[in-house]
Amino acid sequence: xxxxxxxxxxxxYAPEVPPRLEWARLAPDxxxxxxxxETVARQGLDPTLAQLVMVRASQINHCALCVDMHSKDALxxxxxxxxxxxxxxxxxxxxxxxxxxxxxxxxxxxxTVLTDGFVPDAVYEHAAAHFEEAELAHLIAMIAxxxxxxxxxxxxxxxxxxxQPGQH
Length: 168
What we know:
Strand content: under 5%
Distance between the termini: 23 Å
Order of helices and strands: HHHHHHHH
Number of helices: 8
Number of strands: 0
Mean pLDDT: 93
Structural class: mainly alpha
């Protein structure tokens, strides 16, 4: 483990915590299946929308690795830092997003949290009003896929900060 000194401070960063388990190395067929799921889920979805969904679900699930990865990928694809930063408060920052993106973010929250044990009809109907059925099916699959990735990352305590855009 190494520490890095912040450019403007003399105190080093806190040491990294090593992963609990290198699940991808130990279960390569599961990794391949997850990559395949994400790949087919993304088909037909706007890449910008997919990145926003992945960052937001990862924020909710506290998956530091996925927040790091998808924020970097979004920035590399031309997304603004401002829109990524505002994702954690998207409901109060609606003017940063399109109505379609807002519907996707609301659905992402409902599917990710499942507080009441279901996705509310109003949230689903709002998303259905902005997406064609096939696109909505892919969006739901994308939300399910990022939630699965998040659960691997959080459970295995995967370390953020080392990902470079396009590394998948």
